[in-house]
Amino acid sequence: xxxxxxxxxxxxxxxxxxxxxxxxxxxxxxxxxxxxxxxxxxxxxxxxxxxxxxxxxxxxxxxxxxxxxxxxxxxxxxxxxxxxxxxxxxxxxxxxxxxxxxxxxxxxxxxxxxxxxxxxxxxxxxxxxxxxxxxxxxxxxxxxxxxxxxxxxxxxxxxxxxxxxxxxxxxxxxxxxxxxxxxxxxxxxxxxxxxxxxxxx
Length: 201
Hints:
The protein has helices spanning 32-41, 83-87, 102-117, 126-133, 146-156, 171-175, 191-200; strands at 5-6, 19-28, 47-51, 59-64, 73-78, 92-101, 123-124, 143-144, 181-187. By secondary structure, the protein is of the alpha+beta class.
């Protein structure tokens, strides 16, 4: 895909020994719900995920649990080569790095583990998604939409990078966030290949 590129943001290049990195992924598939959201918001991405590693081997979000039923949705672990992402190889994405303290990193891990241990009790916050469109925060401890989930986990871990209620955070708030460093834009299916080429170069 034309335009695939690795991007180095030198503002974030300085490494501090006690800092860790997490990654936030915005993506856009060709599913009907994703197309509808993009049509309504006029934004390039409809979905948000959070990952613990640069290779996106461990990535989480709120989305459909299977491939075909968008209404069977909740907390899931995502894979860039399986499920919806595996089916739609043309999925576009932007990947962002956020540097945080070890304590914040451990806190996020604990938060995700809570979700993981109780994953069957969570469902997708469809009403919250509509509320966010009208700037009305609709919160539930058992229901989240994707970007709301990402913002909630960060907030619970003491990471305040959004100037609004977590229930109102949309993919756009992630895309334009000054605390996030863009490391890749392009097809999600090509990300690991580009990352390897960039590391070699």
